[in-house]
């Protein structure tokens, strides 16, 4: 389909973009990489009167370490996240997640800020952003504010970003000692979105004692969420296959799963458990420093 008529604006600075948003209010939409907004406009699910393209703004495509965090500019592409040596070394969950997004064309054009701000319920980043306890920095003409990941995603395609604000930066923590992370995903065959995606962060001893765990889920409900019931069942315990299997059975607890042509609600609930288990096991093995499956009954083995 062809989108409704709109006025295109391409500011060269962040201040120009913020002034444009201030003038147009709810009638304006931000365009970054274009892989989220443009398909919705073609289907007329979104019909903004003004499109403000921030893709030409310089200085928003950085990845740099700042004390115990890594700051990522909102215009960093998925491909840049995937290949960043800094992220691979100090926050490997994001490159692993980015490598699962779409295809090469999408990864070369799509941006981390655009994906997170769009908040598609089947997007990949939100699960990892939640598991990492990341922070989103948004800016308006009146200043900046920081939003914790736990508060950022509100509902379907809805975040805490207010009218007149632009997501400018994502901050993720540097990997801690004894930490392992993993992202496991059940791909939609056409789009590559997540039918179910699970991002796990586990801190454990080499003997399998789980000190801390975070599990972010995407694709299951109307927004990404932390599977807190799974986390509570694992935290402070010695890992075993049976313990993890039982805990991950709660991966969709309290969630009303989506249903579409790719998966029924019941199937999504079951796959949430399966992919949560795969992500937890993979993250735990990395935390324990093991490349292969440990013995059955102690810590868990690999899944196929």
Percent helix: 25-40%
Mean pLDDT: 93
Would you tell me which CATH topology of the largest domain applies? Uridine Diphospho-n-acetylenolpyruvylglucosamine Reductase, domain 3
Describe the main β-sheet briefly. Answer: 5 strands, antiparallel
Tell me the span between the first and last alpha carbons.
41 Å
Sheet/helix structural class: alpha+beta
Count of DSSP strands? 14
- The helix-strand sequence is EHEHEEEHHHHHHEEHEEEEEEEHHH
The level-1 CATH class of the largest domain: Alpha Beta
State which percent range the strand residues make up. Answer: 25-35%
Query: How many structural domains are formed by the residues?
Result: 3
Pick out its properties.
single chain, 304 residues, Uridine Diphospho-n-acetylenolpyruvylglucosamine Reductase, domain 2, Uridine Diphospho-n-acetylenolpyruvylglucosamine Reductase, domain 3, Enolase-like, domain 1, 3 domains, 5-stranded antiparallel sheet, 14 strands, 32% helix, 25% strand, globular, disordered C terminus
Task: Write up what this structure looks like.
- There is one protein chain.
- The chain is built from twelve helices and 14 strands.
- The protein is an alpha+beta fold and 304 residues long.
- The protein has three domains: 7-53, Uridine Diphospho-n-acetylenolpyruvylglucosamine Reductase, domain 2 (2-Layer Sandwich); 63-173, 2-Layer Sandwich (Uridine Diphospho-n-acetylenolpyruvylglucosamine Reductase, domain 3), CATH 3.30.465.10; 179-288, CO dehydrogenase flavoprotein, C-terminal domain (Enolase-like, domain 1, 2-Layer Sandwich), CATH 3.30.390.
- Strands 4-5-10-6-7 form a five-stranded antiparallel beta sheet. A four-stranded antiparallel beta sheet has the order 11-12-13-14. The protein has a three-stranded parallel beta sheet with strand order 1-3-2, with helices on one face.
- The longest helix has 24 residues, at 265-288.
- The radius of gyration is 20 Å and the shape is globular.
